[in-house]
Amino acid sequence: MPRVLLIEDDEAVREGLSLALTYQGHTVDAVRTGEEGLELLGSVTPDVVVLDLMLPGVDGFEVCRRIRAGGDLPIIMLTARNDDIDVVAGLEAGADDYVAKPAQARVLEARIRAVLRRSTASVAEVVAERHGDLTIDREGLVVTRFGRPVSLAPTELRLLLELSSSPGRVMSRQQLLSSVWDQGYLGDSRLVDACVQRLRSKIEDDPAAPVYVQTVRGFGYRFGPL
Amino acid sequence: MTLRLRLLLAFALLTIVTAAAVAGAGYVRARDAIVQRAQDNAVIETTNRVEQLYPLPTRAVDTSVLERVAARVSGREGSALAYGNGFAAGGMPPSVITAELRALVSTGRVGWQRVSYSDGVWLVVGMQLRTSSGGPSGIEVYVLRPFTSEIAFVEELARNAWLIGGAVLVLALGLGFLAARGVLRPVRELQLAAWQLGQGDLSARVPVRGRDELASVASTFNSTASSLEHHVGELRRMEADARRFVADVSHELRTPLAAMTAVTDVLDAETASLPGVAGQAARLVNRETLNLTRLVNDLIEVTRFDSGTAALALDDVDVAEVVRTCLRMRGFSDVSASLPDGVRARLDPRRVDVIVANLVGNALRHGAPPVSLVLSVTGSSLVIEVADSGPGLPSEVLPHVFARFYKADSSRGRSEGSGLGLAIAWENARLHGGTLVAANRPGGGALFTLRLPLGGGV
C-alpha cells in the first residue's frame, strides 16, 4: 500500500486522518509543519503528499512549490470548504488535486488512488509516438521534448496521455475530470484548467499560443492538430 | 411649467406693468403739458396780434377790411382767414375749419383745434374780434399755425418711453434669471442630494447658505440624512456582526468536525463488531456527525454568499448531461426528465448540480410523485422546471420558501435537510446571474423554475 506524507497542523485532524488512512492500510507519516514535512522528504520517499494549505510557518502553497521543484511527487491539498482562492492558488502552485475539509476518509482515499493510478490510456502501440517536437512513450511513461525528458507531475502526464491518445478530438473538462482525475461525479473544472496551464508551460514553445494543448472555446481541449 | 419659467414670467409681467404705469403716466402728463402750453402760446400770440388791430375801423365790414385783418394776424409761419358780414378773406383754406369750431367761436369764445393739413399737424385758433368798447364786432378770425415741432417732440417722448421700457424689461429678465438661478440652485442641489440618498448614498448632504426658507429646508434635509445614515449604519453593523459571528462559529466548528468526519468510516466499519448498544451508539454518533458536517458546510456556504466570496468555476457543459449525472448520482430515479440534447451552456456544473439536487429532493420530500423535470431554452437562457404533483405550496409559505431555516410546518423534524437547501439553491442561481422562482401550477403541485443565462452570465 502507498506511503502517505500527511502535513496538517491541527492535532485532532492529523490524528483522525492518520487513523483512517492507516486503517485503510496506508503507511502514514504525519507531521505538523511544512518545515518538518520538507525535512522528512529528505529521508523517506512517500508515494503521495496530503497537504493542509493553512500551516504555521511555511504555508501549504510554498511547501507545494518546493515539492514540485524537487520532483513529480503527487500532491493532494486539504482546503477549507470551497475556499475558491485557496483552491486556485493551490492548483497553480502545482497540486494535483484537492479535498475540502471536513472530508470522510473514503473521499480522501479515492483521491489518493486516483493520483496514484497509472496511465488510463490503453497501451496499443509500444513504440514511442512523435508529435512535432514531442515524443510520448506510453509504455515507459516518458515524455521528451527536443530529445530531452520533460518532468511532468502525475496528473500532467496523464492529461497529456489522455489528450494525445486521440489527436484532434475535443474533450470536455468533465470528460477529462472523469478519465484523468477519476471523478465519477461532476468535478471542479478548475482542476483541468490549472493542470493545462502547468502542462503548457512545460511542453509549449509559447504557452500563450499553444500548439499541443489547444483550447476549443465553448467545448474544452484537444491535442493538436499540429 | 418649470419653476424657472414661472419666475421669469412673473418678473416680466411685473416689469411690464410697472414700466407701463410709470412711463405711460409720465408720457401722458408730459404730452398734455406740452400740447397745452403750445396751444396756450398760440392762443395768446394770436390774441396779442388781434389786439394790435384795435381800434377796429367802424365802417362796414367788407373784404378789404377782412384782408387787412387776416394779413395782420397771420404770423410768419401761419396763414389766416377772417369772416365777417358774409364775406371771407385770407390765405387760409376754409376747409380746415370744422363746423364745431365755427359754432364754438360764434358763441364768442376763443376756440382751437388740432387738424391734419398737408402732411402735418396744425393748430387752428379762432376768435371773434371785439370793438374797443367790448361789444362784438361781427368779425371772426381764424389762424392756422404749424404744430409739427411740438408733435415731433411728443413722439420722441413716446419713443424714449418705449426704449426705456424695453431696456428695463431686458434688465428685469436678466435680474429675474439671476434670481431664479439663486433660488433654483439650492432646489437643484436638494434634488440631486435626495436622488443620491434614494440611490443608497447615505452620505449625501447639501450646503446650507444663509438663513432663508431654502436654507432651513436644506438643514432639515441634512439632519434627516444624518440620522438615516446613522441608523442604517447601526443596522448594517449589527447585521455584519451577526453574520461574522455565524461565519466564525461555522469555521470554529469545522476543525473538530474534520477530525470526527475523518474517522467515521473507521467507526462504520467497526460498529458491526461492537456489542449491541455500543454499536448502536457508535452508528448514531456517526450519522449525526455527518448531519452536523452537512449543516456546517451549508452554513459556511451561506456565509460565503453573504460575504461575496462565493465564486463561479465556469465550464462549458452539455446541460442535459449535468442534470442526468446529478439525478443518477443522487439516486433520484422517480423523476420523469425531459432533457433535450445539445443544450450547451457556460456555467458552474457543481453549483447547478446543487440547485437541481435541492429542487428535485425538495419535490420528492414535500410534494408527491410523479416529479417531472423539463429542460428547455428560451432566448439566451436555459430553463429548468421542476414540478411535483402534490398539493402545492400554501400561499403563506410561498413568499418565504427561499428563506433560511424556513420550515413550512414547525412540527416537522430536522431530518429533512439543513433548512438551507433552497436558500443556497436560490443564491447559486443568483450567482450565475439567473433566477429561481417558486409557484403553484394551475392544476396543483409546486413548480420551481430555474433560469440561467447560457453564456455564463455575470
From TrEMBL, chain A:
Keyword list, A-Z: DNA-binding, Phosphoprotein, Transcription, Transcription regulation, Two-component regulatory system
Residue ranges: DNA binding: 125-225
Positions of modified residues (4-aspartylphosphate): D52
Any one Gene Ontology molecular-function term assigned to this protein's record: DNA binding
Domain spans labelled Response regulatory: 3-116
Alphabetical list of Gene3D superfamilies matching this protein: 3.40.50.2300, 6.10.250.690, Winged helix-like DNA-binding domain superfamily/Winged helix DNA-binding domain
Domain OmpR/PhoB-type: 125-225
Source species, domain of life: Bacteria
InterPro entries attached to this UniProt entry: CheY-like_superfamily, OmpR/PhoB-type_DNA-bd, Sig_transdc_resp-reg_C-effctor, Sig_transdc_resp-reg_receiver, WalR-like, WH-like_DNA-bd_sf
Pfam families (alphabetical): Response_reg, Trans_reg_C
Protein name: DNA-binding response regulator
Native source organism of the sequence: Lentzea pudingi
Lineage: Bacteria, Bacillati, Actinomycetota, Actinomycetes, Pseudonocardiales
Encoding gene, per UniProt annotation: mtrA
TrEMBL record, chain B:
Membrane protein topology class: Multi-pass membrane protein
Domain HAMP: 181-233
Subcellular compartments: Cell membrane
UniProt main location, coarse: membrane
Keyword list, A-Z: ATP-binding, Cell membrane, Hydrolase, Kinase, Magnesium, Manganese, Membrane, Nucleotide-binding, Phosphoprotein, Protein phosphatase, Signal, Stress response, Transferase, Transmembrane, Transmembrane helix, Two-component regulatory system, Virulence
Transmembrane spans: 161-180
SUPFAM superfamilies: ATPase domain of HSP90 chaperone/DNA topoisomerase II/histidine kinase (SSF55874), HAMP domain-like (SSF158472), Homodimeric domain of signal transducing histidine kinase (SSF47384)
PROSITE patterns: HAMP, HIS_KIN
Record's catalysed reaction(s): ATP + protein L-histidine = ADP + protein N-phospho-L-histidine
Keyword Oxidoreductase recorded: no
Signal peptide range in chain numbering: 1-23
Domain of life: Bacteria
Domain Histidine kinase per the UniProt entry, residue ranges: 248-456
Protein name: Signal transduction histidine-protein kinase/phosphatase MprB
Organism: Lentzea pudingi
